[in-house]
Amino acid sequence: RELQARRAFEIYPSFSISIYSPLFPLLLFRLDRNTPIIMRRLCPNIDRDDGLETILEVPIPEEMFTSMGSNVTLRWQNMSTWMKAQTSDKWSSPIIANRLNELRFLLYLVGSPLIPLQVQLGHSIHRPVRDCSIEASTAKYIVQQYIAATGGPAALNSVQSMCVTGQVKIKASDFHLSDESIEVKKSTEEIGGFVLWQKNPDLWCLELVVSGCKVICGSNGKLSWRHSSNNQHSPISTGPPRPLRRFLQGLDPRATANLFIDAMCIGEKLINDEDCFILKLETSPAIREAQSGPNYEIIHHTIWGYFSQRSGLLIQFEDSRLLRMRTKSDEDVFWETSTESFMETYRYVDGVNIAHSGKTNVTVFRYGEHSANHKREMEETWKIEEVDFNVWGLTMESFLPPPGTSVLQLHDAS
């Protein structure tokens, strides 16, 4: 397998799958050899000069690599130490554990949030407008314009699967009282990369590595799961199959169109000097009840899409959720999360118009009857490096949940 990996890398310079990964046989990303190094994919064998390089399961941004030391040798030594520490007992240290919990909070809330709505799996994105209100029929017309702007039905329906690699930068403020001004601290900026695989909105897998913390989440069509691989004893959160929010940030136009086909057009808004139509979608009580658990309840979850009147493209994707949690002292604590994503740099890949960069802002409010109102803000800047469609060899085995997940009766409360 190591020799196969070396040969694969000679043919596919950006081949980035671990030889131990179930996705190893998939040879992706046929890039030119002159492509500049933006993300590191190989780690040299620092113990043996004649040893084979390790193919990183998740590529890391060049900026993250350069911050690991003053020279190349030291950087690779620190990289190797970090890789070996993933399965060590060092994560049990209180200081490191607190750091890991903070990173996990950011990656769960900002890097890998899910959308509590079922997205239609079929290729047809048409709905009859007969007997529809003016708001509903207008929304359907806007969605059809969006389909045309992203490549048209033929191009979108030709996509059977996809693989995406990208990099992220995440920074966050501390919790403050809600009436205090908040500044998102650049000094705490976390840098990382991700690999994303998908066959449909309910069949996907994401591996996200940021500042030494790795989160793996996915959906196999029957359940979704999410856990941190740094701590093997951490619980695996599971729930019904749901689409990853990142797909709806300009990566999967067909899923986005299917999501908003039943929305309502509620008006217009100027965003970044673009006149946009606003489409709104409310989650039903049945969906909210299905997503709730014994100790928490989703009170509301609303989604908005802002589509450019000029280009027809999705410019901003926004959702807001209110969650009520019951504490051990039998008190209610409310968590309100508002997320805004701005899509930029649309480029065509095999006839499909994909957003290749953007920014996501997250605001979290925490308040309750005997709890002070607190507020925290987070910001993620993301950039898509590579996109490939119709991945050969991608099977159901590529989306298997962690062992034992099916018997756990846990719910994902983010």
UniProtKB/TrEMBL annotation:
It holds the Pfam family DUF620. InterPro entries: DUF620. This is DUF620 domain-containing protein. It comes from Cucumis melo (Muskmelon).
